[in-house]
Amino acid sequence: MIVRPYRAADAEAIVRLFYDAVHAVEDAHYSAAERAAWAPVPPDPERWHRRMTQRRTLVLEAEGEVLAFAELEPDGHLDMFYCRPDRQRQGIGTQLYAAVEAAARGAGMPLLTVEASRPGRGFFERQGFRLLRWQTVVREGIALVNFRMEKRLA
């Protein structure tokens, strides 16, 4: 497995991975209606390509397949962090996160922030993030709970 910068050819796989990951979340965390509001359809690859090129987007791949991706904004906000559902709990997220943190440190970022999903909260706590507050975000008229978290790097 390698972590590398995003390439335009990754866009199609990334939007599919995002959609599949959201819809694989267990009902205990988010209902079917919440998942449908979060990701009603796979995003447009061209639109996401434009977005991903404006951020530090890292991709973890193995044997030519995209297994996970993360988007780090210039202010240290980790906007996206998703792993393919069939490859979760195999250390992929931890490996990708280590690369994200190394990139943030290399860029002199003093702080990382994230809005973690219910299942993502524990992952980020294990990476050293602390919970600031829970919050509600409304998508497609449906309220979704997430967790504002931060990790000081400096």
At a glance:
The chain is an alpha+beta fold and 154 residues long. It has five helices and seven strands, in the order βαααβββαβαββ. A hairpin with a 2-residue loop joins strand 6 (130-139) and strand 7 (142-152).
| Helical residue percent band | 25-40%
Our measurement of the CA-to-CA distance between the termini, rounded to an integer number of angstroms, reads: 29 Å
CATH third-level topology: Aminopeptidase
- Note poorly predicted spans: none
Q: Describe the sheet with the most strands.
A: 7 strands, mixed
The number of helical elements comes to 5
How many extended strands? Answer: 7
Shape: globular
Strand order across the biggest sheet?
1-2-3-4-5-7-6
**Could you tell me the mean pLDDT?**
91
Classification by helices and strands: alpha+beta
User: Which CATH architecture?
Assistant: 3-Layer(aba) Sandwich
User: What's the domain count?
Assistant: 1
Q: How would you name the CATH homologous superfamily?
A: Gcn5-related N-acetyltransferase (GNAT)
Order of helices and strands: EHHHEEEHEHEE
Radius of gyration, Cα only, in angstroms? Answer: 15 Å
What does this structure look like?
The protein has a seven-stranded mixed sheet. The longest helix is centred in the middle third of the chain and has 15 residues, at 92-106. The model has no long low-confidence stretch (mean pLDDT 91). Strand 2 and strand 3 (65-72) form a beta hairpin. The chain has helices spanning 11-24, 32-38, 45-52, 92-106, 118-126; strands at residues 2-5, 56-62, 65-72, 77-83, 111-116, 130-139, 142-152. The protein is of the alpha+beta class and 154 residues long. The protein has one domain (2-152): Gcn5-related N-acetyltransferase (GNAT) (Aminopeptidase, 3-Layer(aba) Sandwich). Helix 1 (11-24) crosses helix 3 (45-52). The chain is 34% helix and 34% strand.
